[in-house]
Amino acid sequence: MTRWKMTISYDGTDFVGYQIQPNGRTVQEEIENVLSRMHSCTPIRVVASGRTDAGVHASGQVIHFDTTLVLPAERWIRALNSQLPTDIRVLEAETVHDTFHARFDTTGKRYRYKWDIAKIQQPFHRNYAVHGIGTPSIELMKEGASSLIGTHDFSSFCAANTSVKDKVRTIESITFVLVNEELHMVIQGDGFLYNMVRIIAGLLWEVGTGRRAVDEVKEILHAKDRKKSAKTAPAHGLYLEKVFYE
Amino acid sequence: MTRWKMTISYDGTDFVGYQIQPNGRTVQEEIENVLSRMHSCTPIRVVASGRTDAGVHASGQVIHFDTTLVLPAERWIRALNSQLPTDIRVLEAETVHDTFHARFDTTGKRYRYKWDIAKIQQPFHRNYAVHGIGTPSIELMKEGASSLIGTHDFSSFCAANTSVKDKVRTIESITFVLVNEELHMVIQGDGFLYNMVRIIAGLLWEVGTGRRAVDEVKEILHAKDRKKSAKTAPAHGLYLEKVFYE
Predict the structure, then answer these.
(1) According to the model, what pLDDT value does residue B133 have?
(2) Quick check: B160 pLDDT over 90?
(3) Which of B11, B14, B53, B166 is catalytic?
(4) In the UniProt entry, which residues are flagged as the active site (chains A, B) (predicted)?
(5) B14 is catalytic
(6) Is A6 on the interface with B (CB under 8 A)?
(7) With a cut of 0.95, is the ipTM above it?
(8) What count of CB pairs under 8 Å joins A to B?
(9) Nearest to A202 by CA among A138, A139, A130, A137
(10) Are A208 and A130 in contact (CB under 8 A)?
(11) Which residue(s) pair with A109 in the sheet?
(12) Span B183-222, pLDDT tens digits
């Protein structure tokens, strides 16, 4: 039995999310179906670093699974990519110790949130960046973001319907990059609560476009109350970009 | 009656082409349907600078139509974009002289052909750039392209099933640009034959990846024979980028 760690990419547009659920197409199910076919219909369980919601993309999600099939990494990548639907790609594959766990061993994650700031959005980008109405001040967004860096209770930035008790997380960095007519927020931390990146994106966009004062970010953080915060920004601007391990 | 000239953008993925045809969804039909609705069901005929094939994109197609509706340009753009499907956007609108003709008055066009040269293509790009297998030499592609610049009979670069008699066209420039992990060929000329850009793209890719010698480009051009040339490159790498008028 060998444990494989793989880095995968998927276009979240046509999925109801990463994780298998009773209704709708999921990334996990598509991968498990292909693996099962490769193992004479034996079910293979795939474990990811975490789930992603409907419409959310991943350019660097990490999964692991166990197999008795012996193939070099390049062959694994080719075999999977030739059978997977075109909206999922395996980018990298390596064998790991049989105690490696894609979810429990993560030490951090990096997400990217993309706004298209063109006056009219080219249709090619419609599923891959949120069309931001208004001209944001990146300086204001940076200022607002600075209050969130560090270790805090992020209750104000966590979807209400979550069972997670401990809402303390550490954000290591939030940076903003202009790429042609897109504004990207790149956020890295030790872990993120449910919808945390999208609520932060929603709030910082409001700050950048002048709908909220910069000082409100700190107030909202201290309030520890989801209701005080901004609306969750749309799913299709979000990318899980990198998962870190020791 | 006012004649409007509009610049539009569309994602060719889910269209059978620009021009109305008996079976399948077309860009022209979608626009005419919206215009007809705006004119109490009076049919409005839309004329484009030229057709594009199934899967081919446009970031700067030009159309014209006549209307009795009086609206400022910004209102026209908003009204159309709120009713058009999300894979078509109106980018610009201006009134023109009633003798302006989107097709007959063109003095030139610019196309862009995109290859994704990443080892494994991220799924987000799968409909928007052709995954080029192999590492192309841009120098060789430039050398090959140089033989095509100027006024020539491009019979070797024209789909066989065309009724056009005069196959002489002028290519003003062919440039190559590296954008992250994409290689773009930008080609500008006074007009292009059916499939001409895609056949040129197919040939120059073969030259760049060493499957054909640079000298063959000249030989193929002089042969004036479609069969001597390369395979037509896939549609989804091609963008109609700009249409020129006097």
Answers:
(1) 84
(2) no
(3) B53
(4) 53 (nucleophile)
(5) no
(6) no
(7) no
(8) 50
(9) A130
(10) no
(11) A189, A243
(12) 999 999 999 999 999 999 999 999 999 999 999 999 999 9
Cα angle: B114, vertex B119, B121; to 5 degrees:
55
pLDDT over 90 (residue A160): no
Residue of B nearest to A236 (CA): B124
Cβ pair A10:B123 closer than 8 A: yes
SS3 A223: helix
* Nearest by Cα to B30 from B59, B8, B50: B8
pLDDT at position A105: 98
Task: Identify the CATH number of the domain defined by range B2-96.
Answer: 3.30.70.580
Q: Please give the single-letter amino acid code of residue A128.
A: Y
Interface residue B181 vs chain A (CB under 8 A): no
- With a CB cutoff of 8 Å and minimum separation 6, the contacts of A7 are A60, A61, A62, A90, A91, A92, A93
User: Looking at the domain that runs over A108-245, which CATH code has it been given?
Assistant: 3.30.70.660
Residue B193 CA to residue B221 CA, distance in Å, equals: 14
Confidence of residue B134 (pLDDT cuts 50, 70, 90): confident
pLDDT, position A147: 97
Whether A111 and chain B come into contact, CB under 8 Å, resolves to: no
Tell me: is residue A128 an annotated ligand-binding position: no
Measuring CA to CA, which residue among B73, B177, B4, B65 is closest to residue A120?
B73
